[in-house]
């Protein structure tokens, strides 16, 4: 009998694995609609949709392995990281979908959200004021106009699978939509700065490194409270708080 593996579970959604099938349970069916539509539009390998019966979405496992995870050791050759960068570029060059994704918030809305998060982190003693203030300054270049691209919206390295130097699948598209391409690049290299040059070599386009650095700080500042409240540990070695400290 196949065992049931809990891949991730919190108050918003849960993902279970049974053999080669992933069962995603999500009460927000609009989010599932985005995931299904984005997988159908994306010009990169995505999981095969097996069936959908709300609130459950069943998808097939993709072959290969990831390059690592946030807070863990990175694996793969420079060529593998470059292949991932090339796949990201292919996604960003595709016609953007009509809906905004996580990476599609306006600069004004994002600035207001960031300022509220920073004030809360300091007021509640989650992070020291100097750490928050420094990273708020680093985050400023991300708050600028951007050309809409087809973005994944949660492109952490645990969501990109490769077999050798070939991308075999990109998973978890629920945050996809029209957005800032540099948000995806920053998310993919968060905590793995040493591989940024390899990723950009495969991406094949000039990018503003200050904006990548800004997104590392901005994304981490916004994530700390949510992660803490949903059973994750942003203070673990190599994770979000260490990313913020590295900007000091």
TrEMBL record:
UniProt feature coiled coil, ranges: none
A matching Pfam family: APH
Domain (Aminoglycoside phosphotransferase) ranges: 42-206
Taxonomic lineage: Bacteria, Bacillati, Actinomycetota, Actinomycetes, Kitasatosporales
Name the record gives this protein: Phosphotransferase
């Amino acid at each position: 009998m196949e065992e049931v593996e809990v891949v991730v579970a919190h108050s918003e959604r849960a993902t279970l694995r049974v053999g080669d099938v992933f069962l995603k349970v999500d009460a927000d069916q609009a989010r599932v609609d985005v995931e299904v539509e984005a997988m159908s539009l994306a010009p990169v390998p995505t999981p095969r949709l097996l069936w959908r019966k709300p609130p459950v979405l069943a998808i097939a496992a993709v072959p290969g392995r990831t390059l690592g995870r946030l807070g863990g050791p990175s694996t793969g050759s420079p060529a593998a990281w470059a292949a991932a960068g090339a796949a990201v570029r292919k996604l960003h060059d595709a016609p953007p979908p009509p809906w905004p994704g996580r990476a599609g918030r306006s600069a004004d809305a994002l600035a207001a959200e960031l300022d509220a998060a920073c004030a809360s982190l300091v007021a509640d003693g989650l992070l020291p004021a100097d750490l928050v203030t420094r990273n708020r300054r680093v985050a400023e270049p991300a708050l600028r106009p951007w050309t809409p691209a087809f973005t994944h919206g949660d492109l952490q390295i645990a969501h990109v699978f490769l077999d050798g130097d070939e991308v075999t699948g990109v998973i978890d598209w629920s945050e996809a939509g029209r957005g800032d391409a540099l948000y995806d690049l920053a998310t993919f290299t968060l905590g793995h700065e040493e591989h940024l040059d390899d990723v950009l070599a495969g991406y094949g386009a000039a990018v503003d490194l200050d904006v990548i650095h800004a997104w590392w700080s901005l994304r981490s500042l916004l994530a700390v409270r949510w992660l803490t409240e949903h059973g994750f540990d942003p203070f673990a070695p190599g994770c979000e708080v260490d990313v913020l400290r590295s900007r000091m």
